[in-house]
Amino acid sequence: EGFYSQEDIKEIVQYAKDRYITVIPEIDMPGHMVAALAAYPELACKAGNYRVLTYWGISEDILCPSEATFEFVENVLLEVMELFPNEYIHIGGDEVPTTRWENSDIAQQLMIKEGLNSEDEIQGYFYERVSDFLAEHGRKAIGWDEIQEKGIKNKTTVMVWRNIENTRVALENGHQAILTPADFTYLNYYQGNQSTEPLAQCCMVTLEKVYHFEPILDELTEVQQSLILGAQGSMWTEYIKTNKHLEYMLSPRLLALSEVLWTNHELKNWTVFQQKLPLHTENLEKLNFSYRKSN
Ligand code: ACM
Predict the structure, then answer these.
(1) How far is the CA of 94 from the centre of ligand 1 (A)?
(2) Of 144, 137, 139, 138, which Cα lies nearest the Cα of 123?
(3) 161 CA distance to ligand 1 centroid (A)?
(4) Which of 77, 88, 146, 284 has the smallest number of Cβ neighbours within 10 A?
(5) What SS3 state is found at 56?
(6) What is the spatial distance between Cα 182 and Cα 164, in angstroms, rounded to a whole number?
(7) Per-residue pLDDT tens over the stretch 154-183
(8) Please, what is the angle between helix 67-83 and helix 119-136, to 10°?
(9) Rounded mean pLDDT of 247-264?
């Protein structure tokens, strides 16, 4: 619910910048776009009375690959680029059911016109076109790892969220990669037993699991290693309404992730981390920051 005004965004970007943080927006496309269809139903392949979703999940209602859609997307990105003076803009690309495209004249004609062999290749075309648009404006696109199964040929940075092994595919194809494998870094998942934890999303990522995340994969060449830009803790807030709850979900798992990413690998030690943890949680107490108290 709610929205950010341009003034809000400017304030957030400046606040972060003052703390040496770059805010990278994600404008997810062509899926996860029902909110846009609610405002602009003409961007769907199928006429309808779309409503902003009030539950999480994947919708078959996605953007139709029409010229009107590309014009809309480019206009949105022009506005986004102005607000976020970043090198990178994330353009999503995850969880795109193709049912609507299979039944759309616009999508089928695009396939003939562009020599595309499948609806998945429409997504590759969509992605390349939008990434190229960003490149023309001196920006780089980031996309979820599904995009590499859609025949994308340009150098979009791949954000790996499913199996961490998808990283190898990205690196072998010369893409940069950012790692946020759900099994290790999805901080919206339960931290412990579901019966005693606040409602969270599907699965469990314990503090120990986060600590055992290995962002340096075996058997990579030096060049491939250099293509890994880093990793990310992901927090999706569908079930999180208050800052206190957000803090609770972040802490102490974010401490573990910080150590995984910012400590020399040789110094990584789960036992020592557990011994140090009270020093950190004491600080969290002083800051009145909510956190989960046991492992
Ligand atoms: C994702 O969690 N769908 C990127």
Answers:
(1) 6
(2) 144
(3) 6
(4) 284
(5) coil
(6) 9
(7) 789 999 999 999 999 999 999 999 999 999
(8) 40
(9) 96
